[in-house]
Amino acid sequence: MPLAPNEVGLLTLTEWDALLASGRVVFESPGHPLMERLRAAGVEVGAIDDGMAPGDQSVALVAAPGSSRILELARSGAGITSGSAASPDDLTSAHAAGVVRRASAALGELVAIMARLRSADGCPWDREQTHVSLEVHLQEEVAEVLEAIDAE
């Protein structure tokens, strides 16, 4: 499972359940904050050097997104997750892991801001806007982008 130490809060319940169901979870980064949480939940944890036989389905790996180990596992047919986004296959999950979790979180933050702006106690201007009313602004922005490209 590709999961950077600062992405622990982006772990899905499905991924957590999969880790709990593993016989053992090994970590590429020995100081990963998920180690203690899994240990407290009764899961055997350790460093990757403590043993992970190739093809051993009872051992799960938590490694940095982009880790060569994750890519090797995906190529050998291991299941790879990358958060809540559905990928067409495990190799895609392995390659996309570096951005998928952060992008999903950023999109969630954007949706929360939009909901606040359009709420009853939000911004009156935002509440009044429709796709049609925003068309002129979109055209202006596109024109500015094209001008910037042409200026290069």
Overview of the structural elements:
The chain has 152 residues and is mostly helical. The chain has 2 domains: 5-98, no CATH class; 106-151. It has helices at 13-21, 34-40, 68-75, 90-118, 124-128, 131-151, and strands at residues 24-27, 45-47, 59-62. It has a 3-stranded parallel sheet with strand order 2-1-3, with helices on one face. Strand 1, helix 2 (34-40) and strand 2 (45-47) form a beta-alpha-beta unit. Helix 3 packs across helix 4 (90-118). The chain starts with 12 loop residues before the first helix and ends with a helix. 20% of the residues are buried. The mean pLDDT is 90.
Helices and strands, with pairings:
Elements (H helix, E strand, L loop, with lengths): L12 H9 L2 E4 L6 H7 L4 E3 L11 E4 L5 H8 L14 H29 L5 H5 L2 H21 L1
Parallel strand pairs: 1-2, 1-3
Helix pairs in contact: 3-4
Question: What's the total count of β strands?
Answer: 3
Counting structural domains, the number is 2
Output the helix-strand order. HEHEEHHHH
Q: Taking strands numbered 1, 2, ... along the chain, how are they ordered across the largest sheet?
A: 2-1-3
- What do the pLDDT scores average to? 90
Helix/strand/pairing class, anyone?
Answer: mainly alpha
Helicity, in percent? 40-55%
**Low-pLDDT windows of residues:** none
Overall geometry = elongated
Relative strand content: 5-15%
Alpha carbon gap, first and last residue:
42 Å
| Tally of separate helices | 6
Features:
single chain; 152 residues; mainly alpha; 2 domains; three-stranded parallel beta sheet; 6 helices; 3 strands; 7% strand; elongated
